[in-house]
Design a protein that fits this description.
The protein is of the alpha+beta class. The protein is built from eight helices and five strands; from the N terminus they run E-H-H-E-H-E-E-H-H-E-H-H-H. The protein starts with a strand and ends with a helix.
Amino acid sequence: MTGIIVDPLSLKQIREFARKIRIMFGLEEDGYVDIVRIYEYILQSIGVTFEIVDCASMGDKHGETLIGKNVIRIREDVYDRACKGYGRDRLTMAHELGHLLLHNMKNLSLARNTSDEVAAYCDPEWQANAFAGELLAPHKFLQGKSVEKIANSYGISISAAQVQKNRRKG
């Protein structure tokens, strides 16, 4: 099978990177992240192009990151729902930001594997998901909170809150 792999990143490394991004973007260490504001203001200031694309053009893709071009494209309905605070769509935007910040042409490889499995720490989708969860709801602040409280406090879906709460210590 041919797939895309990236340089390995541990959950601990991704968590630390997300923490540094919060600092760099002037965000609270433990608070709600306005991902739409990041896209509309902060990304432009660092040379990233953000495009809202109509549903017909994007098809089934909720978002995409054009590695090497510093472009993130978000499907119009996803963007609209993220503006309204829908957790699933906020996570999609954080996921695409993860691709942009974590992955570049130097650390992407096409690989033919002898199995269908790519180790999670080398899978760009796993890395972007882990980054998105950590950016929006930092694991170190979740202990003792219910899944519902996590979802409400951080503006993520119940299922994303459950995944983030259950991630190992890393």
